[in-house]
Amino acid sequence: MNLVNDILDLEKIENKKMELLENEVRLVTFVRNIQKQFQSLAKNKGLDLRYYHDEHILELGNVDDLKLGRILNNLIGNAIKFTDAGHVSIYLTMVKLSDEEVRLCFKIEDTGIPEHLHSLVFDKFHQVQQATYRQQQGTGLGLSITKGLVDLFKSKIILKSKIEGGTSFEFLIDFKMVNSLQGDVNQRFNSIKCRFFLS
Q: In angstroms, rounded to a whole number, what is the distance separating the alpha carbons of residues 52 and 34?
């Protein structure tokens, strides 16, 4: 059933029949709740699942939370699946602020997928194979759907290698701010600091 649903969703994305449906979302809390859903899975593997966010991120934004949640679920779940030791980190960073929009960067870091397999991770039905995980569960469409959903947000997902090993996936999304917060933009922008909070 999961395979059928994933194929149907991917067809909708590729045929441009999927649309964004925005709701008011508390962004920092939204990502924290997703992190909490994966805590037990990470703990069972002996991994530390960390969440960092900028100090001055505006709390409320308009976004399709179901599709953003699916992107983050796919990336975090994949990172935990392919990481055998160490930690998986989630970063939420504000990179741009205007009168009506805020641009946030989402980044998921792991120590799992090796660099020589990076060109394959977005292929349909492809499952990254490692010595410790000869057969990974899933449909093989998760990252293809993730890439399509990020495209739907008019963004691109970027895959980078880390010097110490593993990968990071990151993407930018522009959020329309809730009306009640727009008058506070200049003050918040002027006070932005490059500090992270660990949740």
A: 13
Specify the amino acid at residue 166: G
For 93-133, the pLDDT digits (tens) are 999 888 778 899 999 998 766 665 555 555 544 454 444 44
- Strand-pair category, 48-54 with 196-198: antiparallel
Q: In this structure, what is the dihedral angle of CA atoms 83, 108, 76, 14, given to the nearest 10 degrees?
A: -120
The CATH number of residue 194's host domain is 3.30.565.10
Please, are residues 25 and 60 in contact by the beta-carbon 8 Å criterion?
yes
Query: What is the domain count for the chain?
Result: 1
Residue 88: pLDDT above 80?
Answer: yes
Range of the domain at 167: 2-198
Tell me whether strands 60-63 and 167-177 are parallel, antiparallel or unpaired. Answer: antiparallel
| Residue 4 bridge partners (DSSP) | none
Predicted TM-score of the model (pTM): 0.78
With b for 16 or more beta-carbon neighbours within 10 A and e for fewer, the 41-52 pattern comes to ebeeeebebbbb
